[in-house]
């Protein structure tokens, strides 16, 4: 199995078996103000939102996780089938392996998502570091691979810096993103991979014409930590130590959400989102939707029903938060009263112009 595909399999194994979680999303510092007289019927709450020009039943995204190895086909099949059943969105992992390797079994790990989810909102995924090499035409091929409704371009340069075989040439990425955003047939979302997107970077991306920003902030799975495990396994102890040093690097998800939402009207909050209440807080901070990755991994290994069960739990938690803030629609939740306390408040005040 080629190196790119093996790396994808390594990532899933490490996430399942090792301690690769961080803390500090900032959501603990965010409190929604309770409405004792909501004056709405809970059963009439509408969680639907529009994302990438398509309607979702709830502002929930199964974040990009996997693909690129035959071992991941089952996971993507179960995740996509659940997205189809519940009407939420899903992204696939990096499609680099699918574009570069002529292997039908490997390709199926991506194409299976549209096979089992003909109506779901699905988005593809490619790395910013590969855009100059690929150009718009190759990214379009990634769109066609899964009949994607949108394409995510991921920013993962801390991960690449720790990876023994990492791509650490970040020159020209913004221009390449702008070319893809202008020329691609579907909306483009730029996403981080666990270290957040600052307000200044979000402004540059907005000016480049991207359709959405997924902040993927600090506080969930640490890809620096994942690559530290991989580096150690091949004897790259110095890079492993660097990966451990940077496990808690980045902007907390709550802060990144606030900063990105100040300059872009379509922000997905991900990075340590672990509940429907976290999603509610993220939306109150300005997000359009909330995304989760690792919490779906265990259920995906069990089967579609387990994934659906988690989604329904998230929806009920979100519905409850909407009810007790008097928010009949998601738009109401975006204007719900909230208070930011503690370290998050200090962080924001120190970064204020």
UniProtKB/TrEMBL annotation:
Keywords: Cytoplasm, Flavoprotein, FMN, Isomerase, Isoprene biosynthesis, Magnesium, Metal-binding, NADP. Mg(2+) binds at residue 160. SMART domains: IMPDH. GO terms for biological process: isoprenoid biosynthetic process. One of its GO terms (cellular component) is cytoplasm. Its main location: cytoplasm. Substrate binds at residues 7-8, 94-96, 159. Residues 169-335 form the FMN-dependent dehydrogenase domain. Its cofactor is Mg(2+); FMN; NADPH. FMN binds at residues 64-66, 94, 125, 191, 221, 272-274, 293-294. The keyword ATP-binding does not apply. It catalyses: isopentenyl diphosphate = dimethylallyl diphosphate. It is found in: Cytoplasm. Homooctamer. Dimer of tetramers. Involved in the biosynthesis of isoprenoids. Catalyzes the 1,3-allylic rearrangement of the homoallylic substrate isopentenyl (IPP) to its allylic isomer, dimethylallyl diphosphate (DMAPP). This is Isopentenyl-diphosphate delta-isomerase. It comes from Halovivax ruber (strain DSM 18193 / JCM 13892 / XH-70). The lineage of its organism: Archaea, Methanobacteriati, Methanobacteriota, Stenosarchaea group, Halobacteria.
């Amino acid at each position: 199995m080629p190196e790119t595909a093996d790396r994808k399999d390594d990532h899933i194994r490490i996430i399942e078996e090792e301690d690769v979680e961080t803390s500090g999303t900032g959501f603990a510092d965010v409190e929604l103000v309770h409405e004792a007289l909501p004056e709405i019927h809970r059963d009439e709450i509408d969680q639907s939102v529009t994302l990438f020009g398509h309607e979702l039943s709830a502002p929930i995204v199964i974040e990009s996780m996997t693909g690129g190895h035959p071992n991941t086909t089952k996971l993507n099949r179960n995740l996509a089938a659940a997205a189809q059943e519940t009407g939420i969105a899903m992204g696939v992992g990096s499609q680099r392996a699918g574009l570069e390797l002529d292997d039908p079994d490997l390709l199926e790990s991506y194409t299976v998502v549209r096979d089992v989810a003909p109506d779901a909102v699905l988005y593809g995924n490619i790395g910013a570091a590969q855009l100059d090499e690929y150009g718009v035409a190759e990214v379009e091929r990634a769109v066609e691979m899964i009949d994607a409704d949108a394409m995510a371009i991921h920013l993962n340069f801390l991960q690449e810096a720790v990876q023994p075989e990492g791509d650490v040439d970040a020159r020209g990425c913004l221009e390449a993103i702008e070319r893809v955003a202008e020329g691609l047939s579907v909306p483009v979302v730029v996403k981080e991979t666990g270290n957040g997107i600052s307000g200044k970077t979000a402004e540059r991306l907005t000016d480049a014409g991207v359709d959405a920003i997924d902040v993927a902030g600090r506080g969930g799975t640490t890809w620096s930590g994942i690559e530290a495990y991989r580096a150690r396994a091949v004897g790259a102890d110095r890079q492993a130590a660097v990966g451990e040093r940077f496990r808690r690097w980045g902007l907390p998800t709550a802060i990144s959400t606030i900063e990105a939402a100040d300059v872009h009207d379509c922000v997905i909050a991900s990075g340590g989102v672990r509940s429907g209440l976290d999603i509610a807080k993220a939306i109150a901070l300005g997000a359009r939707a909330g995304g989760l990755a690792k919490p779906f991994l265990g259920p995906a290994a069990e089967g579609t029903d387990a994934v659906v069960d988690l989604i329904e739990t998230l929806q009920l938690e979100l519905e409850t938060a909407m009810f007790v803030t008097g928010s009949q629609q998601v738009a109401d939740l975006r204007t719900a009263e909230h208070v930011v306390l503690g370290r998050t408040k200090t962080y924001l005040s120190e970064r204020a112009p």
